[in-house]
């Protein structure tokens, strides 16, 4: 896949920093704004600034880390800061962080003065393989994930797995869920490769990240506006997002990381695939075992399940009041826009409890 096909090309390691410095020389932005959160300010910014050839005319904007801050209030704060710091149409924004920073930073840049250029530097595994590619930007509206946003591509995405050295294990696992999803919708070979984790070294990770990004980039290039194929990237997300939102907004619940919620969503979706698409039962068992090996089991009460089902109707993928699922006929063979009766969703949770 050549870079020219993909809007917002993706570059790796040193190549990325060379491209970035060349881009800055060529475009000559009036000012460069770095958006970081408190974690990436501490762990990543200094590493990044060392790679920059001309770090003058630079401003640093910091937000609080965490999904809970991915909202319009944070955006308003940033729009005000940009105005006060004399940002203009020729300014450049560089987002250094996980999915919250890249999603929100992309949205702030895309809407400030009707759009300034931005670059994403994802520092979490999740953002590398998911949030940074495809031009989806946005924020949450209350407990509804990514309700407000636009599709607008970064000038480039720079992926440097060196940043992963600063990530806690739980965050690595969270990112792995998106890699597992890419595998389930694309190929059994890739699924087998990414689930043999006992042998995963950082070098393997480089290769797996590249492969995962390519799977996503290929889908997004063919269907940028999500009319068909791009919907397959929502595998496990219809229920997964509802589970994540539910746990995020109920203070008595332990908040789940995105990947932890999506892991549950993928088991539920695979069970539904067996019921509605004749997905092979032995593979359902294998997927369930492999996912539960990596992620802790989440406990759901009847009331939790009811509220999660209610939340699904706000999912952006729905139309005309129907909840649309992506299901699998087999690994690597997804089917979009599947209608699922509520009773089957209850059965899927029952299956998950007993698995």
TrEMBL record:
Gene3D superfamilies reported in the protein's UniProt record: 3.40.50.1970, Dehydroquinate synthase-like - alpha domain
UniProt keywords, alphabetically: Cobalt, Lyase, Metal-binding, NAD, Nucleotide-binding, Zinc
Pfam families referenced in this protein's UniProt entry, alphabetically: DHQ_synthase, DHQS_C
EC nos: 4.2.3.4
Residue span(s) of domain 3-dehydroquinate synthase C-terminal: 175-318
Keyword Lyase: yes
Domain 3-dehydroquinate synthase N-terminal: 61-173
Cofactor: Zn(2+); Co(2+); NAD(+)
Family matches, as InterPro entries: Dehydroquinate_synthase (IPR050071), DHQ_synth_AroB (IPR016037), DHQ_synth_fam (IPR030963), DHQS/DOIS_N (IPR030960), DHQS_C (IPR056179)
GO molecular function, one term: 3-dehydroquinate synthase activity
NCBIfam families assigned: aroB
Function: Catalyzes the conversion of 3-deoxy-D-arabino-heptulosonate 7-phosphate (DAHP) to dehydroquinate (DHQ).
Protein name: 3-dehydroquinate synthase
Originating organism: Salegentibacter mishustinae
């Amino acid at each position: 896949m050549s870079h020219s096909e993909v809007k917002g090309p993706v570059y790796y390691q040193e190549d990325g920093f060379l491209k970035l410095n060349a881009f800055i020389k060529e475009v000559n932005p009036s000012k460069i704004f770095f958006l970081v959160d408190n974690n990436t300010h501490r762990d990543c910014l200094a590493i990044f600034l060392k790679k920059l050839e001309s770090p003058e005319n630079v401003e640093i904007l910091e937000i609080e880390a965490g999904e809970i801050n991915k909202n319009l209030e944070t955006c308003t704060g940033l729009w005000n800061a940009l105005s006060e710091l004399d940002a203009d149409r020729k300014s450049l924004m560089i987002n250094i962080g996980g999915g919250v920073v890249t999603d929100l930073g992309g949205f702030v840049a895309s809407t400030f003065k009707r759009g300034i250029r931005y670059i994403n530097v994802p520092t979490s595994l999740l953002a590398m393989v998911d949030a940074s590619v495809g031009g989806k930007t946005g924020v949450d509206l209350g407990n509804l994930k990514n309700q407000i946003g636009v599709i607008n591509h970064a000038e480039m995405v720079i992926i440097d797995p060196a940043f992963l050295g600063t990530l806690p294990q739980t965050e690595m696992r969270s990112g792995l869920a998106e890699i597992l999803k890419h595998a389930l919708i694309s190929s059994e070979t890739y699924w087998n490769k990414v689930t043999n984790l006992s042998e995963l070294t950082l070098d393997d990770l480089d290769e797996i990240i590249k492969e995962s990004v390519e799977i996503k980039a290929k889908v997004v290039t063919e269907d940028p506006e999500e009319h068909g194929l791009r919907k397959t990237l929502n595998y496990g997300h219809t229920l997964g997002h509802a589970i994540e939102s539910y746990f995020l907004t109920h203070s008595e619940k332990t908040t789940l990381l995105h990947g932890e919620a999506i892991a549950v969503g993928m088991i539920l979706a695979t069970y539904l695939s067996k019921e509605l698409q004749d997905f092979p039962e032995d593979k359902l068992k294998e997927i369930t075992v492999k996912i539960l090996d990596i992620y802790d089991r989440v406990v759901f009460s009847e009331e939790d399940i009811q509220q999660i089902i209610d939340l699904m109707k706000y999912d952006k993928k729905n139309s005309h009041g129907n909840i649309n699922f992506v299901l699998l006929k087999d690994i690597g063979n997804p089917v979009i826009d599947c209608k699922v009766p509520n009773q089957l969703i209850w059965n899927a949770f029952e299956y998950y409890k007993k698995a």
